[in-house]
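Example with several molecule types.
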Amino acid sequence: MTALALRVSGARKAFGGLVAVNDVSFDVRDGELFALIGPNGSGKTTMLNLISGALKPDAGDIDLGGAKISGLAAHEIARLGVARTFQLVRVLPSMDAEHNVIAGAVFGRRRVWGAEAHALARELLALVGLRGREHVPVAAMTYIDQKRVELARALASDPRVLLLDEWLAGLNPSELNIGISLIETLNRQGRTIIMVEHVMDAIRSLCGRCVVMSSGRKIKEGGVSDVLSDPEVVQAYLGDDEDA
Ligand SMILES: Nc1ncnc2c1ncn2[C@@H]1O[C@H](COP(=O)(O)OP(=O)(O)OP(=O)(O)O)[C@@H](O)[C@H]1O
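Resulting structure tokens for the full complex:
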């Protein structure tokens, strides 16, 4: 059996009276492509923020490769091997694509500099479909290309766990197919990925296991096809539609 990459045990985070993440636990093993799903506002992004250290849990523990990371600062967690993309892309707009990726290489787990960092950046930009666009300022790129840059930057740190927060959102159907096969390629290369996603076809085709959150709680965990046909899960999503 492969090693444990990430363990979340009893994580809790409240914003005032609102418990956004309520006693959530799950394990992700090395090499897994794992989904965190649930209706809008169920706590998925907050859970990613707890893992990456953008927020500190009020209770519970998060371990990376068996070592406790909860409570550490975000930059320390990044160094230890957690990288992420954001729901609303965060790139350095005045810099070109290559320098954005180099920034990831410098601050992550794999610290490379100089010519090695440039070569790594070019390799990763090619992997995400941006060969030949290394020197385009990111501000001049389309949204999908900015997402690609952000993903390449996250990969540049060689993370043990990669967090993708709705990376496929906003893509048109052909971009979506490209995005899905890119994530599949990353996982086939051995990358451990936790994806928060609303595109269910992508979850079905990509992920082995998932956790479903609703109102801050984990309501289901298991194989994707079993979980998505579970009546409680269907009801959680239908309830969300009625609220919308
Ligand atoms: N910084 C914050 N301050 C106060 N409330 C917050 C904060 N961040 C999130 N929340 C609230 O916590 C709850 C969970 O939000 P979160 O963004 O984690 O959900 P989500 O499942 O990622 O939603 P979506 O699918 O819409 O992105 C929501 O009610 C949200 O309004």
